[in-house]
Structure formats: structure tokens, C-alpha cells
Amino acid sequence: MEVTNATIRTVNGLTARWAGVVSDGTLFSAAGVWPLLGFLADGADGAARTELAEVVGFPAQEAAYRAREFMATLGAIRGLDSALGLWTDRRLKVREEWEAGLPAGTRGELSGDHPADRATLDAWATERTGGLIDHMPVELTDCTVLVLASALALRTKWLRPFEERYFRPKAGPWQGRALLGLRRRSVLLDRIGVADTPDGPVTELKVLGSTGIDVHLLLGEERMGPGQVLGAGVDILGGTHEVVPGPQLPYGDVGPGVRVEKERCVRPRPTTLRVMTAAYEVRAEHDLLTQSGLFGLTAASDSRQGHFPGICEYPPLFVESAQQSAMARFGALGFEAVAVTSVGVSLTSAPERRYVTTTIRATFDRPFGFLAVHRPSRLVLAAGWVTDPKPYREGQESN
């Protein structure tokens, strides 16, 4: 199956809208979220069905077909591995017609043993991303009866590698920092271009990969935010903004980070494009329910009633969690990025709690010491005192 231009437009549109609500360093994949929303729309009713269909961009009755078509297309892209997973609790009797809309080989089981289920889900994420993401970003509770997840992993090598160089910017927020720079020269001037957008000029550099997967580097004016620049990049892809390509750029400062000038050389040579950028690695964690309207999940996450009779007639279900973990690396030889997205679906009412147990809670919320002990000899190998615990930062993974 080949995905339609309409599907590409709606997925790219979700990318642009998502970019509009992010800030600071981050990474995300609308392509990892979109098919999950399509399958949910197929099984939803009422306001949840309407909201999900609006985000998916197709009538709800077409959503599962479009999502399945999209996953098949992803699977045919060189350098991209994609997978869909569905795990359900024994308590849940999934409608055969809804499950039939999913790609084959996606079904697994939730045992209700949280540590065991967590291990199963984490192993799936690890395997599908080559170990770059080692956890499934989903919350498991006593009421979780269904987990629907996608994984995307892309890797490509540059057709022409960069040279690694010491890079110390002379101005801007990175001024004075020692960075790992990436340098490249080329006579292919059309790799660079400058677009005039409503928010300001945006420079686009295309870095071509050997698998047909490219990376577009986008630079706007300093006053422009990530949503404006990334949104412009999506619009450039869609042909909304006219781009002046490298061969047509005039002399002078012609765009963000781009200057065209004459210079002397010792022998004749053609016009050359010289690129200097920085290597990077970005990791991010997203809670999609904090922007539930963006993903059509506002009604679906209302726990006061059920929303998915097309998945299971009884018991009533709602979306309890929706999250994404992502990582990308850009280096001298190539690029790789992975994203795991999951939706946890739960019962609208908690099962009856029939048992009583005892809980002991220990909280270390002020300076404390530790010993590392060799058990057979009781030899203390290390000792320490903790006064400055490691801070948490967005996108940080636990070690």
C-alpha cells in the first residue's frame, strides 16, 4: 500500500501544530502518534470519536484503514523500522472487527502482574529501537486493560560525511562554548535555500542520507521560537513558502546564518557551499495528555464514562495515559532517531479491593550516607554522603 498525499498532509499538519506548543530543546514524532489516534478513532463513539477523527483528518470509519495503510508505508521505507503493538488484559473481550483492523502480529497479553508486564513492554521497546530507548512510556495501574504502542527507528548515513572540527561560536547563546563542529564543502548549491515566511526568513539546509532519509536543518532569526521555525519547515515541504535556492542568492547577508561573498583563491574553483554546524543528541519525554486537545484526546481521557464501545462493549474504557519517548543523534557520518509512543486504556471504575496488606514507606528526603559492601567478606568498597542529588531535567532518562 502507498500512503496518500492527504495522509502525509494531515501527519505533517500535526507536526506543525505540535511544534507550535513546544519550547526549549526537544524532539517529537507525530508519525509515531498519528496511527494510534486512527485506531482509537475507529473504536470510539460520541465526542471522543469526533475529536479523534478531526485530528486524524479522515472520517472515523476510515481511520483504521488509513492508519494501517500508513504503517504499511512506513514499513517499506529504507532505513526505517516500524512496529505496532497491542497488549490486552484477560478481562477485556476485544471486538474482533476492531482487532481485525490492526496489522497482523501485533497482539500480546497483560497478565496483571505489573513487574512482569513492565518487563514485557520494556523489552518490546528495547528490541524495536535497537536499545536506544529501553522503556515503554506508559503508566500501568490496576485498571489498565489495554496498551497500544508504536515504535519508529530510522538510521541513515550521509552521502557525503562531515569533517569533525573544534567549533567555538563568537556570538549568540552558545558564545564561547567549546562544541563538536561538523564541517562540509560542496559545489551542490541547491542544498541551501532561504524562505520568506510571515514570521521572518528561515534558512533551510538539506543533508542527504544514503537510505533516502534526509535531515533538514532550519535556522530562523534569533527572535523566532521553535514553533515558528519548525512550522515554517513543514510549510516549506508543503510548498507554502517560496524558497530562494543557493544558486539564486544575491551577495551579502541573505538569510539567517547565510552570507554570500566574494573571496580570493590561489586557483580557479567553482562557487562552493561551506557548511559548519554542531553535532547533537536530543532526548525527550512527552505526556500527550498535557496537550490533550492537540491530539484529540480530551473527551477520550474523561474517566467519568466509557468512550470505546467499538473496542470493547463492556466494561467502559477511557484513555488513562498517552506518552512518547524519543531520541535523535546527528553526527559526522549520519543520523539516527527513535520514538516509542504508547496509549494506556483503563476501566472507568476501579475493581473492588478485597484484601488488606501492610505497607512500610521509607523516604530519604535530606542528606544521607551510603556504603558499597562486598557481601561474602563484608568489605566496604565505597562509602559516601549525599548532599546534592542529581536534578531531573525534561527528557532525562534514568540510569
Automatic annotation (TrEMBL):
InterPro entries: Serpin_dom (IPR023796), Serpin_fam (IPR000215), Serpin_sf (IPR036186), Serpin_sf_1 (IPR042178). Transmembrane segments: none annotated. It comes from the Bacteria. It comes from Streptomyces sp. R41. This is Serpin family protein. One of its GO terms (cellular component) is extracellular space. The lineage of its organism: Bacteria, Bacillati, Actinomycetota, Actinomycetes, Kitasatosporales. Belongs to the serpin family. Residues 8-389 form the Serpin domain. One of its GO terms (molecular function) is serine-type endopeptidase inhibitor activity. Pfam families: Serpin. Gene3D superfamilies: Antithrombin, subunit I, domain 2.
